Amino acid sequence: MKNISLQDISKSLKISKSTISIVLNDRGDEKRISKKTQEKIQKFAKKHNYKANQLARGLSRGKSDMIGLIVPNISDSFYARIARRIEYKAEKSGYNVIFSSTGESKVKESQLIQSMLDRQVDGLIIASSQKNEEDIKRLKRNNFPFVLIDRHYPNIETNYVIMDNYGGTSLAVEQLIKHGRKQIGFITLKPGLEALKERLYGYSQTMEKRGLPIKAEYIQELNYESIELKMHQVIKKIVEVPNNIDGIVFATHFLAAAGIRELRKLNIRIPMDVAIVSFGQMSAFDLIEPPITAIQLPSNEIGDKAVDVLLKNMKEADSGYEKICLKANIVIRKSCGML
Amino acid sequence: MKNISLQDISKSLKISKSTISIVLNDRGDEKRISKKTQEKIQKFAKKHNYKANQLARGLSRGKSDMIGLIVPNISDSFYARIARRIEYKAEKSGYNVIFSSTGESKVKESQLIQSMLDRQVDGLIIASSQKNEEDIKRLKRNNFPFVLIDRHYPNIETNYVIMDNYGGTSLAVEQLIKHGRKQIGFITLKPGLEALKERLYGYSQTMEKRGLPIKAEYIQELNYESIELKMHQVIKKIVEVPNNIDGIVFATHFLAAAGIRELRKLNIRIPMDVAIVSFGQMSAFDLIEPPITAIQLPSNEIGDKAVDVLLKNMKEADSGYEKICLKANIVIRKSCGML
DNA sequence: TTGAAAGCGGTACCAA
DNA sequence: TTGGTACCGCTTTCAA
Lengths: 339, 339
Fold this sequence. Notes:
homodimer; alpha/beta; Rossmann fold; six-stranded mixed β-sheet; 12 helices; 44% helix; elongated; DNA-binding
């Protein structure tokens, strides 16, 4: 796909590259290029469908007009939605998005960050695996524009846009309590992610605040890789004597889905026997019987804010750090104990 | 983020850029650069964390090692899954993916294709809005490597990786028939997309083959924008006298979800009153009561094949067109009339 | 075995 | 108002 270049136009029109470049970047008036010349160039360019080579342009200008997006998994609906939003907003400001998924691997994340830097992205939006302090620190040290989303490093000061995990879980627990539940369990993933720690903390603090005891077995942590496998035992353990759980908060939407499957298999009725709340929506949660109460994550807002903050950071190198924490809402349906 | 350049190394080491370039591209042996020189260069590069500027590299080599992905909407789970897969496979071959969503707009799609070409992507994977013959033809004319996915243009010969929409719908209808349904409706989107036409065709042909009459009202077409709004009337119309539908095939997963919502509201029992099958999965379909029978789309395979075909096309300019049509499976659950 | 230099396609500064 | 030219950072050819 050989495109016409500035050189080509220059030769054909016998006008210097510089003049042409100026005109085609719409700075003809500013640079006082005569109307005639401008028209001639514009016409010729249009006719031959001239398009600047962005690689060359980027190389020359020292910026690529690309921003990099790094997420754990683009096929996760949460990140997919954020990505869509980021893409949408970035494009409005003339940026393209280049993305990659880390699969929660620190090594991969590190490679991806480097790869994007090699491609000269102008800024980075990262939902980090959070085992990657070095790279984050390096970016920071180099004053490279970036924003952390969804997950942040509590002991590194950076721009970030996250959500109120603590508050969200708190809402979930409160809701169960409101429906008279007292033995409330929390099913989550093996920690590592700050977000999950916060959710756990939100759970335990709220329980405590309400004077509800937490037995050791109330809190169950699964490995990401073996959720389906282990959910069975976990549910069984916390529902049966002596734990007698009557409410469960699931730390993620997919944990909730897996949990519901097991509750069904064990013939445990929702919400009569056990009321549940999911941290995070799934698109058919309203169709399940009973419909599932869920904490709604602000994915669109995260995407929006991330781009805003990043663009600002790209413009003014040191405008201080933006630390945004978005509230999560609860969508109340029957699974939490409605009558 | 100022990186060290070949120049810098050249100066420091007093070795020419060319030699360094060769060595750092691992062609030192091939080009008979002495071991000593190689080591010296490698060591220095590692120490100073040299990374080639991909913009410059791309400009010089005339290829960017990027492939562009254009889909209607990256936040749609179907495309998100494909994207993940494409990204995964592309990366294995050293390519990065740059993506954008068209929102089903022809104009946007056209712009995006151009934008990616401007960025010098080495190839394009496109799930086209299908109102965009010109661009596709242009790519073809220029011998630019690209693959159409999910949707193709029947009257333009190109590489494509699609799924068997006809066969999928056929499976769906057959399944309903197997459960004794005879008045089967088909709820779809206003056409435009080839895929939807094929699904419609799969429906009507199968009905005919089975000797089942199709009344005009059996086939209902909704606008993408007003699904929730219109689903109510549509369901009502086909379920009530005189149509008395006892089975429905939904042409997409979200139509199915919307349909189920309405069936519930109208107190129509699934599958006793109306049995249903969804073309396309949704992650909680197995949790709905009754669990929803669905045609499972081969998203992973589409992603895999798309990359395979594209890479091949990029390697050998005219290896002929690859036309891949993947089978869809049916996942049978209770909604289709199981007892 | 290594180096010099041209070129990839732009941008931008300085002269004219 | 326009042109010449250096430069962005890398690859590659040709000479040495």
